[in-house]
Design brief:
The chain has 192 residues and is mainly α. It contains eight helices and no strands. The radius of gyration is 18 Å and the shape is globular.
């Protein structure tokens, strides 16, 4: 469990600098350059992510069951993760009304994804991992929206076709991931 927690601290710490130390982040980017800053953050994030995965795998090998999720939570989680995939696609597809309304659909996707996994899993490692990611996403989403409002940033929508594309691409990606990749990557099939 300590490796999982250490990985989370490193990974989320690297992703939280802008939330808690915007001025320091700006000074560092000016001092070493944007490319080096991004490289450094990426390197630290990757290390934290690998440590987090390793720790989560070790914790799953000796699970501590906190609660037993009812069967229906798997179905709710499946629908929430579908929404998360759509939000994720909308984050990178320019001109969606989804991004225009939400502002930061990728961070919203992390919130929805983490909540879904908290509902459907009841081990201590699940609660630590998904609860930490949910808490971070809530803080990051609020900070990002505040920055947008302060700077007058808006995300213009081009048309409904972009939203339809986000829904279609997100649904296809979700179906492929849920029915094939999830079991291969994590050893768990979301739908049995």
């Amino acid at each position: 469990m300590l490796l999982l927690i250490a990985g989370l601290v490193i990974f989320l710490g690297a992703h939280s600098v802008r939330i808690f130390a915007e001025g320091w982040r700006t000074r560092q980017r000016e001092r070493i350059g944007e490319a080096r800053w991004k490289g450094l953050v990426s390197l630290v994030s990757a290390g934290g992510f690998l440590l987090m995965l390793w720790g989560f795998g070790m914790a799953r090998a000796a699970p501590v069951q906190v609660w037993v999720p009812p069967l229906w939570t798997r179905h709710v989680a499946g629908l929430l993760v579908l929404l998360a995939f759509i939000l994720l696609v909308a984050a990178y597809l320019p001109g969606t009304r989804i991004k225009s309304a939400i502002g930061h659909p990728m961070v919203a996707a992390v919130k929805v994804w983490a909540l879904a996994h908290l509902l459907a899993n009841g081990t201590l490692a699940d609660i630590v991992l998904f609860g930490s990611l949910l808490a971070w996403a809530i803080l990051d989403f609020a900070a990002s929206r505040r920055r947008d409002r302060a700077a007058g940033v808006s995300y213009p929508a081009i048309g409904i076709s972009r939203d339809l594309a986000a829904v279609l691409l997100g649904a296809v990606a979700w179906a492929l991931f849920a029915h094939y990749a999830h079991a291969w990557l994590f050893g768990v099939s979301p739908f049995g």
